[in-house]
Design brief:
Shape: globular
Number of strands: 0
Strand content: under 5%
Radius of gyration: 24 Å
Number of helices: 15
CATH superfamily of the largest domain: MetI-like
Order of helices and strands: HHHHHHHHHHHHHHH
Largest sheet: none
Distance between the termini: 30 Å
Amino acid sequence: MSIRKLKWFDIANGLLLALVSAVTAYPLLFVLSASISDPAAVLSGRMWIWPVDISFTGFEKVFANSDLLTGYSNTLLYTIVGTAINVIMTVMAAYPLSQPRFYGKNVIMALIAFTMFFSGGLIPTYMIVRDLGMTNTMWALIVPNAVSVYNILIMRTYFQASIPGEILEAASIDGSSDLRTLLRIVLPLSLPILAVMVLFYAVGHWNAYFSALIYLTDRELYPLQLFMREILIQGQMEEMVNAADRSHVQTIMDEEAVKYAIIIVANLPIFLLYPFLQRYFVKGVMIGALKG
């Protein structure tokens, strides 16, 4: 291919990627701008991209709602504790399965992989959680999903492809135990895949609501997503905007402001987490997905 054709290809590719980026970024920018714009401008269509008549009414009502603050703190707790348990258990499962000298690893891996395709279902799972006394506790949201088979496969492949066996052999000759080798050698060399696991698990915990809907009855334990569900789906937004004391038009505008503000508040921690993990993300996924 000539240099001229390569140049035109690069230009066309750049334009295509710019278009895809714009299509992807527009909804995010619209929601952010709508959350700090006058609701009347949003409803009338005067706001397209940039904020119009900046107003923080939605955020004021969101942060004044005690239920949302409770849900926010609960979700932070569930995400931090759950992600820590997830990553630890994934590492403890993937590392032995990646070692050639681990006898019976193929059988164990087959049994683990079997659960990806066949499971007991919702009712048996609920009965187990209930009989273990975990209903209406935070552990009902963490323990049943303590490890992902898919993530075990990714991490095991990463260990096999990226950790030289010679290093592990040298550590063994020097008298290092398996646990010490894992903590001192393997994990420091595995920051990309660990970052991927943290992001996968954290996003899963942050967005989860179905388990809480099934296992929790105490509102003090509700995560943020359940309160958002009540507000956005079950029509409880009027309680936040004091609909009885306002005109119908003003109530609609306040509900619009609250809707966009909730979306921003709910997703802000994940948006802040991703830039710190981005440099590890692509490398971790690619090496963890392919052995070579």
